[in-house]
Each structure stands twice: as C-alpha cells, then as structure tokens.
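Record filed below.
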Amino acid sequence: MGSSIKRGLDGARLNGAANDPDQVGSIGSPAPAAGPMSGGMRTLTRTLSVSSDRHTDFVDVTDDVARVVAESGVTDGFALIFSQHTTARIHVNEHEPLLLADLTTLLEHLVPRDAFYRHDDFSVRTVNVTPGERINGHSHCRGLFAPVSEHLPVSGGLLMLGRWQRVFMVELDGPQVRQVVVKVMGI
C-alpha cells in the first residue's frame, strides 16, 4: 500500500510507522508514574490530524496514539480512538502490505465504487446536501464494515496490543485530512 503520510500531534509530517516484526506486547513509552496526590481518575483528549494518500487507505496511527497515552500519565485504563467522519473508520489489524491490499480489494468487491447509490442522486436527495459534495455513497456503505472507534486497554502506561496489531485510520473517501480523537482514561 506504500507509505502513507500522516500528521502527528504537533502537526509535523511523519512517514507511516514501521512495523517491528519482533515486537510483542505493549506499544509506546511508559507513562510517567502517578504522583502521591494523583490517586483519582486521569483523562486526556487529543485530536490527531491524519492525512490519507489514496481513495481507500490504511494509515497507521499506532505511534501517535501511544504518544497520547504516554502524555496522559495513565498507567491503568483504556484509550478510545474515534473517527469524527462518516467515511473514515478506525480498525486494528496487522500492518502487512499484501493484507492491506487484500482488504482494499475486498471493500471494492463488496461495495463497488461504480455501482448506483441513491445517496449520490442529487436530483432527489434533499438531506445533508452541500455545495460541491463528493460522489461518495459507496464510501458511506463501506463504513458499515469497520467501526468508527476502538477501545484499547492500557497497562503499565502502555497500549496493550498483540504482536502484530496496529491501529489504523481507514480512509474510505480520500485523499483527505481527517480528525481522529484519542481519549485516554484511567489511573
């Protein structure tokens, strides 16, 4: 799928994250230890701007999410990763280029871009129509196959992901810049 471009927490362009095949378990740097006065619940919410390169794209945001977890100071809790878009989703899977190509092919097979979608018939549609709107009924329908958010456990200040698991923003109507909310909660 090639290397995707994404924007990190500080807005700087970052190349798609590399996947370390020997990595097992937690992702990221441990969060700072909670101080003596911090026995209560901690929360931190950050919005990531994520750029896609293709119409259907899998942009790895795992390292950005791990940075938010570390910044939060949460050592035990969870991270919610949420797409603020109806045609961009969040998905946990393996970062393997052939698999990502297979997933893209599957979406095209299940919901072809060139099929007829009533959402795209502006001669009859009257709801939520904006000037210059994209023809994207297929993108909305593809969203049915992936969640808009994922909850991931945090333990020891780290994301608890399996050996091959990575967090993706799945672009279904790109290329575009998307907003992904990361909310970390815990102690």
In short: Confidence is low (pLDDT under 50) at residues 1-24. The chain has one domain: 5-15+41-119+137-186.
